[in-house]
């Protein structure tokens, strides 16, 4: 269906408010509507300590030398808070929306509010269609533009530590590129609940003349919870060139650091119980074993193996996919079928036919040059480590800093092939392993081959954690996190994939628990009797993750129409469900601007403490080969948890 040409004089969305009949309140107001505050994380710990002490409970001990990790965080971490601001969400109608009512679209497609809110917002003119007020039963047409006016709240994010006044640490900059060290918890682009608290927006506000709109172009992505290198180009052409280097796989080597549970890679031994097809007790079912060519005479096998140069032995997998060499000189491991042509048009008869391609699930060893190390074992990965510093071990494994490159020593790597897929696009959850269990018509859907190289740098017995190097050969979503979990060594504080929030940090756990306790008391009220059914605000709620309820909408916005002469901005502030949640169940109705801002600040800071502070995964080094055969290598400093 042809899309109607949009009226270019009407703003499509962003900071400020567009209302019906052409009334616009975002013109020249954007900067005045935004207020931010940067505070040390110790501010949140002080709030918790005061609350705990006032209630004669256990106080957080800021001088506890046994909890050095959390003390370091207190002294060094900074948090950025954006106060709520008016914002217009705008989108053109999707094809699947045509012919459905506007209230059903919002209720079914967007999950932040209950249906009662959307009904009231449509009637009040906070939800418009192509700039006009409509009824709840309005049927969406092709080309319609849906507009939603909100008082936008954002979660807090971490910034660079207190060693610098700059919000983001710059690793390298010239007239062509900007390379920065992204703090954990900070998304690169505006996404989900994050808008102004994103890397691109913070850079733009920090140095608008150098990094403002149209000045920087992203080259690649990095997960919000991951810290480390991010490359930004200063022209769209260079961004495209560098992006192709990364996408071409052999044009870019990415090296990550991770701190994982246990003594890597001995956790592999614990994965055997998960596999039911093991027929050989001496060989792990996931181990790819190099064996003589099947067509060789037995008496020639020894001579054949001695004459074959090691570096000429083809691997069992390339980019996670089973190679033709398997069955000739390799055995073991697992074969996982996948649709190699997924996303391409197929005949109906072939839609669910057996895939002709197979992803590998298994491991093998290689040396520093990528040659198959036939005789190496998992214990050899441990034996090559000694008591040298992390920097010295990095020099042996991947060379020294980019400024003074050195020859890498012989170093062993564990190659792990294991397919991945996104199991929930809505929640951003992925899975890895043998993903063919259901065997229904869609059991191959979304399976992608994946491969990562990993090696041990050091093991810390006191925390029972290992510092691991990881080099992803492919770039699947959450690939390193999934592969480490599958090997029995999840990233220690990655609670989404087998780790534990505040791993090994009792003081941090106390702070998190006290923050949650404070939030729950705010949500239930001082005189709460524990009746869950009568609660207005849900248990364990956060503004970022917990949708508003009918009760919250009723108490915050019911019978509160827009008054004569009241601006749309003041109206959405007055009826904001999230501001009401920040004030708590005992203060759901009115509050002065100062009171409301203070409550928003405190709740936003407390919610930051009950969420992940970032995981121990750090993009350490990127090496790119450009089309003119030149090489570019960038490396960040080690994060605190890797020193």
Automatic annotation (TrEMBL):
InterPro entries for the chain: PsdUridine_synth_cat_dom_sf (IPR020103), PsdUridine_synth_RluA-like_CS (IPR006224), PsdUridine_synth_RsuA/RluA (IPR006145), RluA_PseudoU_synthase (IPR050188)
Region annotated Disordered, chain positions: 526-548
GO MF: pseudouridine synthase activity
Signal peptide: none
Residues annotated as domain Pseudouridine synthase RsuA/RluA-like: 177-281, 445-485
Record-linked PROSITE patterns: PSI_RLU
Polar residues compositional bias, start-end: 536-548
Pfam family, one: PseudoU_synth_2
The protein's name: Pseudouridine synthase RsuA/RluA-like domain-containing protein
């Amino acid at each position: 269906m042809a899309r109607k040409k949009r009226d270019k004089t009407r703003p499509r969305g962003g900071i400020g408010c567009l209302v019906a009949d052409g009334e616009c309140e975002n013109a020249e107001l954007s900067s005045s509507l935004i207020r931010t505050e940067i505070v040390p994380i110790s501010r949140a710990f002080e709030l918790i300590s005061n609350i705990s002490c006032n209630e004669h409970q256990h106080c957080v001990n800021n001088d506890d030398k046994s909890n050095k990790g959390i003390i370091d965080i207190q002294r060094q971490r900074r948090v950025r808070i954006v106060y709520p601001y008016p914002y217009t969400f705008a989108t053109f109608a999707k094809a699947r929306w045509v012919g459905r009512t506007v209230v059903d679209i919002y209720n079914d497609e967007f999950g932040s509010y209950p249906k009662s809110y959307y009904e009231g917002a449509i009637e009040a003119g906070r939800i418009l269609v192509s700039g006009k007020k409509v009824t709840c039963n309005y049927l969406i047409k092709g080309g319609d533009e849906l507009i939603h006016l909100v008082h936008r709240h954002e979660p807090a994010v971490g910034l660079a530590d207190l060693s610098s006044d700059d919000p983001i640490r710059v690793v390298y900059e010239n007239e062509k590129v900007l390379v920065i060290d992204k703090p954990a918890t900070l998304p690169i682009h505006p996404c989900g609940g994050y808008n102004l608290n994103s890397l691109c927006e913070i850079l733009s506000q920090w140095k608008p003349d150098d990094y403002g709109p149209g000045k920087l172009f992203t080259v690649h992505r990095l997960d919000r919870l991951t810290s480390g290198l991010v490359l930004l180009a200063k022209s769209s052409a260079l961004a495209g060139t560098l992006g192709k280097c990364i996408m071409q796989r052999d044009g870019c080597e990415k090296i990550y650091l991770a701190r994982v549970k246990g003594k890597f890679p001995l956790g592999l031994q614990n994965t055997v119980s998960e596999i039911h097809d093991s027929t050989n007790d001496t060989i792990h079912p996931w181990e790819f074993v190099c064996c003589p060519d099947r067509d060789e005479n037995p008496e020639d096998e020894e001579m054949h193996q001695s004459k074959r140069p090691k570096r000429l032995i083809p691997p069992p997998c390339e980019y996670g996919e089973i190679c033709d060499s398997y069955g000739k000189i390799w055995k073991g491991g697992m074969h996982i079928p996948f649709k190699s042509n997924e996303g391409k048009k197929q005949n109906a008869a072939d839609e669910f036919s057996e895939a002709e391609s197979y992803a590998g699930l298994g491991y093998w060893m290689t040396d520093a040059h990528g040659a198959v190390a036939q005789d190496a074992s998992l214990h050899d990965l441990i034996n090559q480590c000694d008591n040298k510093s992390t920097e010295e071990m990095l020099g042996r494994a991947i060379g020294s800093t980019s400024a003074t490159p050195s020859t890498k020593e012989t170093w062993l790597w564990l190659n792990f092939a294991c397919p991945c897929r996104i199991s929930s696009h809505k929640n951003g959850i992925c899975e890895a392993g043998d993903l063919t269990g259901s065997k229904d018509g869609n059991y191959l859907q979304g399976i992608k081959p994946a491969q990562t190289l990993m090696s041990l740098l050091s093991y810390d017995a006191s925390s029972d954690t290992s510092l691991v190097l990881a080099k992803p050969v492919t770039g699947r979503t959450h690939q390193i996190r999934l592969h480490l979990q599958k090997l029995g060594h999840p990233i220690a504080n990655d609670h989404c994939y087998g780790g534990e929030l505040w791993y090994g940090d009792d003081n941090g756990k106390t702070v998190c628990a006290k923050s949650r306790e404070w939030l729950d008391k705010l949500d239930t009220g001082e005189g709460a009797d524990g009746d869950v059914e009568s609660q207005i605000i849900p248990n364990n709620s956060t503004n970022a993750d917990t949708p508003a309820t009918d009760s919250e909408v009723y108490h915050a916005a019911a019978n509160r129409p827009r008054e004569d002469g009241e601006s749309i901005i003041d109206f959405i502030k007055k009826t904001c469900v999230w501001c009401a949640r920040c004030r708590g169940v005992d203060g759901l109705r009115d509050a002065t601007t100062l009171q409301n801002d203070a409550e928003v600040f405190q709740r936003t800071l407390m919610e930051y403490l009950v969420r992940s502070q970032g995981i121990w995964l750090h993009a350490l080094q990127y090496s790119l080969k450009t089309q003119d055969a030149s090489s570019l290598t960038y490396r960040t400093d080690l994060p605190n948890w890797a020193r």
